[in-house]
Amino acid sequence: MHDLKYTLYFETLLEEPCNELVKQALEEGDIALGYNCYYIPETLLNLPGCFSSRLRAPNCSATPIGDYYLTNRNCPYTRAILERAVEGSYNYLSSLFGAEACSAMERMEEHFEQIAPVKHEPFVTTIIDAPLKSDQAALTYYRNELRDKVVAKVRELGVDTSDDALRAAIDDHNEVSRIITEIGDFRKLDNPPVTGYEFHLIQLVSEVCPHRLILPYLRETLEEIKARKPDATPAFRARVVLCGSEIDDPEFTKLLEFCGALVVADRYCFGSVPSREQIEILEGETPFEAITRHYLQTNLCARFMSEEKIDQRTDVLEALVKEYKADGVIVESMKFCEFWSYEKVLASHILSRERDIPTCQIEKDYTLTGAGQLRTRFQAFVEGLEIKKLEAAGKGVRS
Description:
By secondary structure, the protein is an alpha/beta fold. The chain has 14 helices and eight strands.
């Protein structure tokens, strides 16, 4: 297939946190609000006059400063974020809204306050206490945390947080989600007109760029994909669902697809599932109540260890396999990640042993170090999926 019109432009936007569209929005008077976890609803940060910016550390090859403050035996994502903060990559931000999702994340967020690496006035750092359950009591607690530590702080920055403004933010979220979901739905086809790498680019730019500025490019890309003709012979040998933690480097998806596995669904921290689901305001709800309910109910973080949430995560993966006609699942965890190290083993066991879904589990660094080992694992997994399909086809012929 020919390259999409904006592939190179999207790649360029992802090279630095303060990209061209971020600079344009700042020049036009918008406020940049940083966050790094699904527990912080991006919808609350996309009110009129401000925009959300999910923190990434592109091209971060070494973390000597992050290692000094957080030790080199800690989450590489948090070390890379702190490293880039000290380098000055996030000086465009007016805030960091964090969640106590894990001890490593909390320590990194605390350092934003303690050593003040972001040189911006004003700069707000706040950390919510994220609930471990999703029942009514947890929802009430979560709502109070977001009201007092996010909405109130955003209001202090001079942003309108009224019901009308929140309703406009929901409309904005739903429009972005509608477009990206429609693009992702093309991957359900036997021969999709969009690759997993291209979709990864599209999803990421929607998380790190002001929505009002990236939306025209997303709309045009959707229309281009609708008219795009895929190659007559598919370039992939297997279809996989990719699941895991902070996978914010599209080169990782490109590596996987180079090994013959088309990524048809993305269920990781920066992925479109569940972040691009529509927010519905139920009868009797305020916009704020709708946002908080939606984000807690759809949250699939491995931090939730209740049986109900474990089943929800596994059910979502199984549903994605069926809906996108995937041949298997790849479950990723980052080095030193306390929650995903458990989740990787647990999900792999349930999917492969109890639900008969071929599963490959891998551990990787935040950057693509060890790409050779990953390539070997991916190639072996793809070959195994091919053999399984051939065996199934042979049984069908004999019967």
